[in-house]
Amino acid sequence: MSGYRLSSGGSQIDRSRRVRFSFDGRDLGGFAGDTLASALLANEQTLFGRSFKYHRPRGVLSAGAEEPSALVTMRGGARVEPNTKATMVELYEGLEAASQNRWPSLRFDVLSVNSLFGNFLTAGFYYKTFMGPTRKSWMFYEHFIRRAAGLGAGGFEADPDRYEGLHAHCDVLVVGSGPTGLMAARAAAVSGARVILAEEMAQLGGMLPNESESLDGMGAGDWAKATVAELSTYENVTLMPRTTVYGYFDDNVMAAVERVADHVPVPAENTPRQRHWTIRAKQVVIASGAIERPVVFDGNDTPGVMLSDAVRSYALRFGVAAGRKVIVFTNNDRAYHTALRLADQGMTIRALVDARWAPPQELVEALAARDIEHFPGHVVVKAEGGKALEGVHIAPYDPHTKRLKGSPRWLTTDALAVSGGWSPAIHLASHASDRPEFREDIQAFVPGAPEQAWRAAGACNGDFGLAACLAAGAEAGAAAAGDVGFGATALPLPSVEGGEPDGSAMLPLWEVPAIKGRGKKFVDLQHDVTAEDVRLAQREGFQSVEHLKRYTTLGMAADQGKTSNINGLAIMAETRGATIPEVGTTRFRPPYNPVSLGAIAGREIGAHFRPVRLTPMHDWHVAQGADMLAAGAWLRPRVYRQPGESVTDAYIRETRAVRDSVGIVDVSTLGKIDVQGPDAAEFLNRVYSNGFAKLPVGKARYGLMLREDGIVYDDGTTWRLSETQYLMTTTTANAAGVLTHLEHLLSIVWPELRVQVTSVTEQWAGMAVSGPNARRTLEAAVDDMDLSNEALPFMGVRPGHLGSIPVLIARLSFSGELAYEVYAEANYGMPVWEKVLEAGKPYGIIAYGTEALGALRIEKGHVAGPELDGRTTAADLGLGGMASRKKHYIGSMMLDREGLTDPNRLKLVGLVSLSGESIRPGSQLVEGATVATSGPSLGHVSSTTYSPALEKQVALGLVEGGLERTGHRLYAIYPLKGHRVPVEIVEPVFFDKDGSRMHV
Amino acid sequence: MRIYCPICGERDSSEFTYGGDATVHRPAMDETDVEAWCQYVYNRKNPRGPMLEYWHHTQGCRAWLVLERDTVTHKILSQPRLVGPWADQPASNPPTDGGSDTGSAERERVSEPVGAE
Amino acid sequence: MSEMVYALAGHAQPGIFGNLGEAGPAVTLSEVRPATVLQVGAWPQTRAAVESTLTSFLGLSVPEAFGMSSGDEATTVMTLGPGRYMIVAADAGLRDGLKEQLDAEKAAITDLGHARTVLRIAGPAATKVLRKGLTLDLDLGAFPERAVAQTAIHHIGTLVHRREAEVFDLFVFRGFALSFWEWLTDASLEYGYRVADPV
Prior knowledge:
The complex is a heterotrimer of chains A (1000), B (117) and C (199). Chain A has 1000 residues and is α+β, with helices and mostly antiparallel strands. In chain A, strands 9, 10, 13, 14, 15, 16 and 31 form a seven-stranded mixed β-sheet that branches. A six-stranded mixed β-sheet of chain A has the order 44-45-46-43-37-47, with helices on both faces. A six-stranded antiparallel beta barrel of chain A has the order 48-51-50-49-52-53. The longest helix of chain A is centred in the middle third of the chain and has 19 residues, at 466-484. Chain B has 117 residues and is mainly beta. Chain B has one domain (2-106): Folate-binding superfamily (Folate-binding fold). Chains A and C meet through strand 9, strand 42 and helix 21 of A and strand 7 and helix 4 of C.
């Protein structure tokens, strides 16, 4: 026996629109407005999946987001999505879904054999069972456990859909669109505040379609529709259905996901499947409602056992009867009305079992009037049926001793509607509050004191009655708007007729004793955690609620314990002899519901994972086929390979070409900072370790910048363009850091200095023209400049024109060759670059990339990033002369500390490979010839290259004692790859030792 | 987290970079005691609770701000103020009285940080 | 000297793209190419004098409030913060003229004309597109016409200038122009966009 479609009814479905779908390969039919769960119930499906650990048959428990059991895999191929709650899937034409965690089929699942080992698979069994015989054994067991673990399986193809992120601002965010939320939104809206109303489900109205009351003379469901229609006419209201507000963050920043296209086969072109919203709300009203509780008894996971309000929902909203012979099991009044409404819908309600001995007389009489058998003072002790509920055992119950008082009797049934009371949905509030408070009167936790700007109202705040919710919502909305400065006029409340009890008059009933033995009583259905597991945790010392959670995994599944947390901690309380508030709840954290990674990533995927920064000559490099390399956000050409060349071949060729004739390299990525003001010279003098106060106009100087602790931070050249204006260059990597460093000094340390600094990295395209023919090349390119050694001496800076374009040329050399840096404003970068190439043609000019740039500077022993690694001082690098003794500058006061002047510090040396093998950067330098005799590390290799000038493999490194070891032989070892290269320590200059080539 | 910049108004914290402990003062340039310099460079109190901090509006106007913030709750406890040559400028964009917990009722003057004129 | 090569050269192809409703594309994207983009920085002692010089030189009153602008397409002056201004103008000679008026003691003038790419988004969906990247409150009450904000869109520093309710000029670092253009056009697909010739 099973559920079926009622012949009429269903406020949410449209019986005129049939929808075809498939489940586990079977073609089935439903109606527009159905969820997958309601359509499957209507098709007499009882089995929805298999449980996580024991592979027990499972049905559907609920009708909403709290669903623990009915998890399905949606779609297939690249769009496959596992672990989706069937209760949240909106049915659409062609929908394909499959059950999970079963093989070969749902009905005959091989792994259900796990059930037989139930006694061994208790909480914590991994830790106790798979511990031996050796420590490595776990890796063996893990292989098998991993295959059996998990529920649904994900896909391996790239998700073809778009996901987007957006930002929103409002005055009042209302979360939840039940009676409370609708009134709150209305009250805030009429005040003129900007309101966003977010609702998790596709339809707004919350529980209203289920309620029997009349509001303003209309059915509750109709009142909801009318109110929503009214709200949609306000320009200052944004309605957001299908949107789950999943996280509450600092300063009222809320995160939400809108399911834009999960309910259609394929999202419309160029529109996203889901949108992630970051909402900054000045005030938040949380009207998230309450979640019904199951009761813990033997066999309570049998398909056919459902929450009673879910049974009501399926009947009233979807026109689906959960069973042909329903029994209601409750501890409160509200379930009586459920029984009565269901009977009035034409369903057969066999009986109502109430744990309380003396329920209200009028309810008892109403049952009798409909021939519903009544069992007061009884509880359901066991449900039986395997793949579908066949019946239950009920027995008299003593609430004082919490024991059964008589022998059980059997009642046949195929659907058990259970109501153990209501738990306010305090999750979102708890992200932003102190500990939740326990209220004895409703035996439930309500939100604690707010730590952000929100207020809770309605069922989530412990007010379960409809009239109370309407009033609380109106008040909360008005107060929220008032806090933002919008004076609210009091909103008239709708008249309410025909009140239902709110379910708060209840007898606490967490767990029912088993008939014999311990029984299989489930607390957390999704993780297969039983009441016995909770008691086992307590016996083993895991008594605190946080330990209980992690040890048993209760509440850690995708449903995050929405229907199991309170039962679990109530059982722990009972076991410990403590009260529920003494046990407390675990801390709720975002997300409230699972959030897809797609929604979080949005469009920042693939090439757009982060922004890409291009130089003005980028398109030229690409057109030449350069290998482009990421340097931070920048793309730089590494080498320009010719056909048949490897990277090494290319950089060797490029390096030779520069030394032999002339080459041009794009250096636009260097940081450039405009330093201006009457105190600029003084400022630079305090920032650099060497003197800058007397740098003449028209000259550049190489400068070393230290950190406050005396370690070298950055280097570069600074050009004096006028009395009060300088252009500072930095390394590419430290451009942003140096700017911040300078701004920090000018704002906090020396605010009295009149200096302004601005990044002009992007204002200038930079290119270095280097080689013996550099001057001849540029002379052919410039219009009006005297580039002779006298007119533009080494380190000089001159403005001029090149091809009618204004340029700044500085005679600087990183390569050790005769060289010039040509700066043109960025939009002129490409034309100037091309004109220089044209002018250099007679000299065979080539473009060179970062590899050759590196080879050239290493051959000359110029330190760069790898040597400025945050551990080296100027003296370590052989630049001690640049650390002035005559002035105060950043780092100057820390230089003389013992640790920084120790003669045994690692100092810069050159290294030559004695075997011809290349030396790997990062290699450690040791004395011993073999692995066993290596001895301690004496230093490391920082930069390496093949030197075309020497025709040897060389490197720069840092070694204890530095050049005192000149001539020593060491080994450069790289143990991870088993490399060992014999090297000799030499001076850190391999070519043009007197540096005369750049002074011609 | 949202941070109020006196120049730009309230912005997401992602636009800012933490700028260090604002109770620490760089010794005068003529200070010769290395201990004082070591104290400045290395030692920090790391309080659990309210702390005076610098923040740099790196993805905005690039101003430096000083504010008091609770290192446990992340709440900003004082109205952020500019540091530097323009420190005493009136805020052009006063914080809106949105009723958030960092409401105007709680704005206190904290001890003078370095850099304020 | 008209051979400037702009960052989006060869990339921002004119055309109509994306989801076109009955009314056609809901935004128009174009590159704006002002001849002058200058940052002017005064010091506290010189602020009043600098503002008065700017006012008389540009014929525009410099806004008192931070984050506001005055002027029009031909010349705009923005007040970015205390003593800090941005001038965007069609007149290429403005920089040299202004330098004559303001010496180094009074102000620091930094030319950013090549350092920025300016993109204009205009149309009924302009605000909706920008909400995909801007964390600012774009409600007209919070960010009115003529307002200016320095912020970031997906980690790319952006200066946003709202010329009209649904017309925004976005200034980004030239090096990020193409990356930003790709984000902007992608974000506009949902509403349909037209790429117009540079302004």
